[in-house]
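Table S5 (text form). Sequence records supplied for joint modeling of the three-component complex.
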Amino acid sequence: MLKLDAVTVQKGDFRLQADLQIATGAQVAVIGPSGAGKSTLLEAIAGFLLARDGRILWRGEDITALPPGQRPVAMLFQDGNLFPHLTLRQNVGLGIDANRRLSAAQTDVVSAALARVGLGGMEERKPADLSGGQQSRAALARVLVQGRDLLLLDEPFAALGPALKAEMLDLVAEIVAEKGATLLMVSHDPQDARRIAAEVVLVAEGRALPPLPTAEMLDNPPPALRAYLGAPQILDPDR
Amino acid sequence: MKPLFVASALLAATAATTATAETPELVVFTYDSFVSEWGPGPAVEEAFEATCGCDLKFVGAGDGAALLARIKLEGGRSEADIVLGLDTNLTAAAKETGLFAPIAVDANYALPIAWADDSFAPYDWGYFAFVHNADAAAPANFRALGDSDAKIVIQDPRSSTPGLGLLMWVKAAYGDEAPAIWEGLSDNIVTVTKGWSEAYGLFLEGEADMVLSYTTSPAYHLIAEEDGSKAAALFDEGHYMQVEVAGKLAASDQPELADQFLQFMVSDAFQSIIPTTNWMFPAVMPEGGLPEGFAETLSADKSLLLPAGDAAALRDEALDEWLSALSQ
Amino acid sequence: MAERAQPIGRARPASLHPVAPWPGTCAALGVALLVLGTLAAVAMRAEGGGSGFGPAEVSALRFTLIQASLSAVFSVGLAIPVARALARRRFAGRRVLITILGAPFILPVIVAILGLLAVFGRSGWISDALGVFGIAPLRIYGLHGVVMAHVFFNLPLATRLILQGWQEIPAERFRLAAQLNAGPRAMWRLLEAPMLRRILPGVMAVIFAICLSSFAVALTLGGGPKATTLELAIYQAFHFDFDLGRAAVLSTVQLGLTVVAAVLALRVPVGEGFGAGLDRAVVRWDATGRSATALDVVWIGFATLFLMLPLLAVLVAGAPGLLSLPAPVWSAAWVSVQVAALSTVLLLLVALPLSASIALGRRQLGEIAGILGLAASPLVIGTGLFVLIYPVANPAHVALPVTALVNMVMALPFALRILVPRMQQVMQQNARLALALDMRGPAFWRRVIWPRCRAQIGFAAGLTAALSLGDLGVVALFADPETATLPLQVYRLMGAYRMETAQAAALLLFILSMGAFWLLDRGGKFHAEA
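The corresponding structure-token record, covering 1097 residues in total, follows.
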């Protein structure tokens, strides 16, 4: 279980408070108005922002003061998920050990991960030679070999087309299911949330609220969310 | 980095330890151009070591003034036994340090002036002069130079020995009229350089018609390069002398050897090396005389030299006059 | 895609960096200690109080400030259009041209002066040509001559630094601007002007500081004692008066001026930079018009002629004697190569951690420590080191390491200007990902900084090697006959009337400097992208 115990994070003038729990293995979408602090919440969990107050616990262990790389967290950002000067093999290999040369066995793991995301045989390519979707896949291959318990996605697929994005989300869902990982993903699109997240954390007005079931939240949005979502019929064409 | 560092340290160390304890070592501080491969140093070293059963080690330090500064910095702890290369503009200040021992050198000096100094012995000397291209007419004195439109390049007295020599030359020849002479010269001076090399280089490049140097300079071009195109302008007010001297440090750990070197310095073996390496007049005329084509010495009344004490006393005043005349 | 303010940098706690800033802080303190410690050593060695600041010193101060300010303004002002032209033109020989244009910066002073005068002097090529038409020769001596010589020395440096700024604008931004149909003027407003605002203050401060400690150039081209600089006053204090107290006071003033210049430059906001790019080759879609092309051709032509003609004069003067150089010149060349190699290694050991630490936000300390090296009078550092070393070792025995060390300190400010912007960019782009992957110190250096900064490291190393080869520095204070460096040997040859041999030795020095620079600079770019 991930527990944010009365956490306050400060980023410039902006302050976000969070007091919530997320079950191990849950798949949670983080939604809310632009600028409400969705990314801030993820950065606090990942350790890029240190909590001013409160504690962050993972399975009962206090990780509040751990540096980012030592938290049980893999995170994908909007951009900059790959080192542009390294090959895919090197980039993915960093997920196994960023500080030492890889063994032959570890190199095989890297190749397997690349094959798993559909990039088999592209080990020696560099990110600039790849399409946007391929870059996302490579980043996911690294997440795969990192084997962390918590996967945080800060809209890494925002630049992809709808079909490609759906494909990536499905790949994420598969990986999460395989690894039994817990997923938190920032989303602007309620469709994404419905697609793979069972629960939703709403971030609005400087607060991150405890998770609620996705369908319930989207079907009966609270006022803050309603304002953000706008007219429901447009957002939910299934109805 | 390590191997390089070690290599250079070793290099220096071997250079220093070639003289083992059995062979006495005589350390001579001198100006840089004396020790260079093209100066008298290598030949002098060879000649003295052939007779002394010792190791003669030259250490070069800039020019004469830098040499004195270094001796002052090192004080009584200096490893030097001999300081060679001060001139009469510096000997008063050198004596003031109290670091020099009295010497007794016996020589029949070929200087146009009588030499009597119990701390320093001369080894060569020369006259400052303006050097020009032989095919161009040269003015006969400072006033004529000031009236002409000849362009000259000189050295800064604050950083250069010849530059200071020129200051003394004008002062010795004109006394209180020196400022007027400088005013007359100010529109002839193309520029002022840090040292002799820069000025002479500018002259050779054609930037000026004349350069402050020595009467012996044309001899280099004539003897070494077989080029007779340079001449030194003889001024009728006479020429200021530079007398280069050596002295013995009181703290020397080889006082006898130091005395032996100073006596060697005025011997034929040393003196015959001077004319075509340092391009100055030897302090004692070598047996073979001066080389063919070398400059001629001037009569005593054309040989100007302020006594060391006067030179030191007049220095600051002369500099102020120079600065204010040329800063207009 | 909108740029997102990245939470890397100022706001983050010290522990959240992939590399620790303390080695850089130590390096900065070490450099400051060397510069200030040697100054203190000189001051403490002074007997009696140094006579204070008289009218002569005041006028030296005034002249120093005027010439250094003008030199900085003209160097940078001319470098902007030249760098811009070089940034947006692609032509055969461009890279070679850029390398050779850098040459004046690494030329020994006396050689450069003779080269300049051979072209612009009273009997130089231009005056001779004017003479054919009955026009009076150029008058180069005076304040304008000083500024011209300083521009000759520093235009290459300014151009390279500004060009680097242009090259650090990611290709994506130019593509975006092209997409918006931005012409040259809009390109200027959107991309180039902000980049220049970020880069120019530092470049100006560096050149100002270099020119502050000018001495032989200012005096020779200035045409007389009117052109007395602080550095000459320091030299006079040592050489003419042996007044160490006054030398220390003057040197403190010179250091103070440099620090003021550096602080003013640092107060200019750095801005946000241009964010990440994906290392695509830069293609420029703007400036294809005929007038823009003509303008660039004029500027490149101007820089080439102005910088190359004096070099050509050096070449012409030195070439005849090059093959018959005497053995002592070759052995001195070998000594100089060793000094340069040691200097370069020392530089990397200091400049890399220091630039990383500056990129992590320790700007003030690092940059000021870096720029101190420029303002420090070589004479004061040399004398101070002599005073410090003399009681414990024979100065001649440490001549080469000490020379290498001082040359390193003198080259450090340039190396920092080259390394810091790239280091900032690399930190901004890669620190978060490295942190997320728990990539620590050595691995971050090896896997991210080294490959991504290779071109800049090569440039900085090449510049240091070249500067160290060409610099007379402090070796004259320490050297004995066995350890003469090549520049010292050039002076010795001139002092022994051997002007032609000296010019050939100077050409050898120039070839070695350019060779070292080329080797390291190209080595850094070999197989490196961007």
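Note: The mean pLDDT of chain A is 85.
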